[in-house]
Amino acid sequence: MKDGVESLGRIRAQGIVLLLVMFVVGVLAGVALERVRIARNAPSGARPFGMGQPWAEGHLPMMFRELDLTADQRERIATILLQSRPRTERILQEMLPRLRAVTDSVRDEVRAVLTVEQAARLDSLMVRMRPRGPMHQGRPGRRGPPAPER
Known about the structure:
Elements lengths: L1 H40 L20 H4 L5 H43 L2 H14 L4 H4 L13
Helix pairs in contact: 1-3
Protein name: Zinc resistance-associated protein
Organism: Candidatus Kutchimonas denitrificans
Keywords: Membrane, Transmembrane, Transmembrane helix
């Protein structure tokens, strides 16, 4: 009997860990995708740190404004940010499909551990927790095949 209880505890712990990993991966993917969307759709001055060209006009992101930079420092930092932009965007575009694949794979693994009822509850929780907005409209929550009966 003791082995059965320990086994259930391990399974529950593994499920929680997988759920947390899935959540973290989803958050990271959402943040990355949102940055790309904003960078593509926002006017130049409204783009987030590292994703636009407002620095060409001498305007740096807020965190740099609090450093009391000299004009020379502002100009040099703006140049660094502008020059690094293509490289960071290229990496982001390369990694997003892989990140999505990992997220989907983890979600499928977690669903395989759950009962049908638990999978349904997970689906409803994911719908409630899913980031909202235009960035996420084209990517509905995957339901996947039903979890096996337990």
